[in-house]
Amino acid sequence: MSCRIGMDVGGTNVVTGLFDSEGRLLRRSKVRTIKLSSCELIQQLAGQCKEILAAEGVRESELEAVGIGLPGFIQSESGVVSSANLPFNDVPVATRLQQLLGVPVAVENDVKMVVYGEYLHGAGKGYSHVLGLTIGTGMASAWVSDGRLHEGAGGLAGEIGHISFPDISYMCGCGMKGCLETVASTAGIARQARDGLKAGWVGLLAERFPPEIRDELTSHDVWQAYLDGDAFAGQVFQRTANWLSRVLVPSIALLSPDVIIVGGGVAAAGDIFFDSLRSYVSASLHPLYRERLRIVPPSLGDDGGLYGSAEFALKSRKIGLRI
Amino acid sequence: MSCRIGMDVGGTNVVTGLFDSEGRLLRRSKVRTIKLSSCELIQQLAGQCKEILAAEGVRESELEAVGIGLPGFIQSESGVVSSANLPFNDVPVATRLQQLLGVPVAVENDVKMVVYGEYLHGAGKGYSHVLGLTIGTGMASAWVSDGRLHEGAGGLAGEIGHISFPDISYMCGCGMKGCLETVASTAGIARQARDGLKAGWVGLLAERFPPEIRDELTSHDVWQAYLDGDAFAGQVFQRTANWLSRVLVPSIALLSPDVIIVGGGVAAAGDIFFDSLRSYVSASLHPLYRERLRIVPPSLGDDGGLYGSAEFALKSRKIGLRI
């Protein structure tokens, strides 16, 4: 039996999925990765692959390919990675891991891998043109059309979180001022709420977070306050949906996707976010687009990136990329 | 010698181009089309094809395919056309013309054909990812990536002129309020200038267009006033570039094009428009995009649509579309 592995590498955890030749998920495992060096992390990734094969009783010779999704900028031709959240700075992750495992390894941006997985097996299954976005710790997009994951010039397609707007005043970690990601992200949700409280919001959030502990407020606290009935907390999610619609509306007119999949920690807020997003987007689009508009959450939960990277590895291997 | 024909069908003229098997333009002709019925226009298109073959001394049996670019909404699978500027309302233009000519006929939106032509032989030649926009009578876009002209779900990709913004107050011909096209188009240029004059602008435009003839003012007059030194006229083009940047910036982050080709009557204003556009776009993008940003005018003049539609016809024929 031939098999492949998909890995979702984050700043805190590595999740590994073993798939059979039909693309069925046989087994998944999860380990913590914090405070490892570049070498240690690559060793750990190789170790995870070997462990999951052993646990499932699969010989290493049956492994066809490994795919890895991780946050950061990936030079797609070479698999060289630079990431703010991982110990990789111009590290040829694909080549190193390939040497350790003896099989082709493909490395791609994690958001692209999640969206590719959703396109193949999740909320995008059966559609030709799928636009996916993640709005969580950061914000990025991926575009799959007629089976092709779009890379763009320099592999730079999808960094929609770093569009700057003149009416956003926050500094971004990327060095620019007013990036969309500074408001439309989990940190952005918390930031909007803290600034609202400073400006005099009253209600549950204000009671729960007096000035002396205000800096501890997280996006989850805003969501909890919304669930408990705080009107201002609800407005934060509505406003965030409005920010996102500024990018989504031009994207829909430009590309006419069959479906738009929005995932990540902010989208996990559910109806308050999705209903607002659909409403803002509809209001700005021609009826022809409005009628066919589908804005949905992902359907593979946390496994989208595993499915996507495992399949992407196989596809890259077949067309001779990254080997 | 096998040959193909590309046609650019507008509300006023039909331009026809005859190409040899190497894609070289052998001959072009132009006729007026106004006030023809649907049947008459289709007859005229067939007649134009036969005439240009005869004029070049090419036998009709050597004609391989005909491609047509025209303004309007085209159901790309069937070649059925609905157009506000032509006498076509759900007319199967491709099928009818095919019956008259006995060769495969492909029909597509004119902006898509211009951009496809520029991708193959013009300002987009040699690039993998080409975004093209026309900002003239109307406003639309087309996206060519890895040789594929993107259609989108329902063939609806590219109607960026009909994105509505809350701070645009004009009604659009499409029935919506605040469409981008109401300000970013030749009519939009004239509209902005007329409203500026009403609001008290002074200078050349005000002298040339006193209230009693203000309605006669065209985008060309605004451009002429700018060339003659009118500051307000220059601002109209700058503001229009700013409107366009609202769509262009998200598009660049989403897709990372190698090059962006902006054509049409407004873009013909030249430096005042392009310099402003590059400046607004740069200010809102991450340096990674900024460094590789190329926003250029078309290089095929009025022939982009001929090149594009002739090649598109051949490609559609080969892959079995529309025949």
From TrEMBL, chains A, B:
Domain of life, source organism: Bacteria
This protein's UniProt keywords: Kinase, Transferase
Gene Ontology MF terms in the entry: kinase activity
SUPFAM superfamilies in alphabetical order: Actin-like ATPase domain
Family stated for the protein in its record: Belongs to the ROK (NagC/XylR) family.
Protein name: Glucokinase
Lineage: Bacteria, Bacillati, Bacillota, Bacilli, Bacillales
